[in-house]
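Problem: given the chain below (84 residues), write out its structure.
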Amino acid sequence: MFDTHSIARSLSEADLTPAQVDAITEAVRQAAGHGDHVTSEQFKAGLAELRTEIAGLETRIYRAMLIQMAATIGGTVAILRLLG
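Solution.
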């Protein structure tokens, strides 16, 4: 929440006309009412969720790399046995 009266007072002190003050204050009120902002708690929760997802992806990538490395080593050993 924000104080529209305080905004209007600040704009008036900046020598804006009453019509300009009303228009700007209404625009700010409408923009704030669209709900497309988050609280710091919501941001922190979203960030924690994102970090959890990233950690899970890191684990999957690490496992995939180990499997590929093992397959490469196994293939190399098999080829060396055939040639040896």
